[in-house]
# Entry
Amino acid sequence: MPSLRSLSSFASGLLSQVPLLSQSRQPFSISSPQSQSPFPPVNSLQAGVGVSNFEHTCPINSPTSCHNSTAFPDSCCFIYPGGQLLQTQFWDTGPSIGPSDSWTLHGLWPDLCDGSYPTFCTQAPMYHNITAILSSASSSLSTSNNEPSLLEYMKTYWLPNRGSPDSFWEHEWNKHGTCVNTLAPGCYSSYTPGSEVVDYFTRAVALFKELDTYKALAAKGIVPVWGKTYTRAEILDALKAVTGQDVVIGCRGRVINQAWYSFNVKGSLQGGEFIATEPVGKSGRGGCPERGIRYLPK
# Structure
């Protein structure tokens, strides 16, 4: 499947940002400065409890990533240099992946503030046993209301279109998770190897739960149907209602299959606030044509 990165080229000036002092650990939340109905804070279950060893105390008025130019010493409280976080989703139909009424989670990527991106970094350790780490941690991740565990949820909503889930999750962590500086072992008290992995996947899943692409499209009458087409403007308008900001969409030919939500973060990935922002360099055009976009059923 062609990557949307190969379909869209981001271009804008790099905003200067450097690590700053510290941030108070806050409940996970996502909000949009331009949305009339910002997202409510995600509850503790959705945010998970994998951040229990992350004990940096940081100021409530911490600057937001990609919006700061003053040097501060504590990199555990400010995401740098990858300050634009992309929550990416797929709609795979060949073969069909995931539930028929839900998009699937592809990743949480720390892009730089100019839209370029690092990969396979050394901010956090690489791992080759992601499933084992998440399985071992599942006993400490409390659940309620019969909700599935983190790993069980991922087995339904975070799946590859080829290969094994474990290999896919390993790829996402080693390529992208290792580039988040607040996940460095030094940011944890009583560090236990794998803590950062649990935090990364927990936060990615919590964010995904708040970004229901299928529901947003359906609310505007955009549903997967054979023989029906939609315009790019119709799709982008529907998805903008999710966060109040433009969303990047991607297509394979004329078939929509990707959606990217852009965020800056106030604080750490573990406990910070995700603030919806415009995608750098593009206004949600991505790689889809203006008209005749097909949204195929699974």
